[in-house]
Amino acid sequence: MEPDWLKWAKKLAAISQNGLTFSTNSYEIDRYEKIRQIAAEMMSTQSELDTDTFLTVFAKEDGYATPKVDVRGAVFIENRILLVKEKVDGKWTLPGGWADPCTSPSESVVREIFEESGFETRAKKLLAVYDRSKHPHRPLIPFHIYKLFFLCEITGGSEQTSHETTAVDFFAEDKIPELSVSRVLPHQIARMFEHYRNPAIPADFD
Questions:
Q1: Which of 42, 68, 79, 82 has the fewest CB atoms in 10 Å of its CB?
Q2: Same domain, 128 and 156
Q3: Which of 56, 77, 36 is nearest to 170 (CA)?
Q4: For all residues of the chain together, what is the average pLDDT?
């Protein structure tokens, strides 16, 4: 779960983004810029990054503030799950990443699986929609994120790394390697195995 200070900072950042998107009055714009400054300062006090870095990140966001969408694919072969090793931190995760505009969530996860592992897949079922802030992911991130998990089956391709991954492999439930907990958590992997064993389980949410 996220700490209260981060929730408050993200809410302030969203309020400032919405205000700066729709306001035309110079006094209101100044107020929303000050709110953005406060949000950046709050995050900076709990981070190794300085206030200006957060302000730069916030400035890149425009339009009405909405959650970002991360998609992850659960792919199984003979009771083993597909994981990829991230180049950034050297740890393992379900293949996935940000959903792209003009692409459905299932299309996005199929693309991500192929790009990160080399396997062509078909999305069969939505397994979970998790609010990242309600799960103990680390590090903390200054945006609100929904994480969508899909059960996918292999239709072609072969094992292949990418510019983001250094290894691709399948793991039994009791042999899961160290996970990249910014992207996926042990209890989420365990839940994917439960969905795999029992297709009648409804999709998880929150």
A1: 79
A2: yes
A3: 77
A4: 96
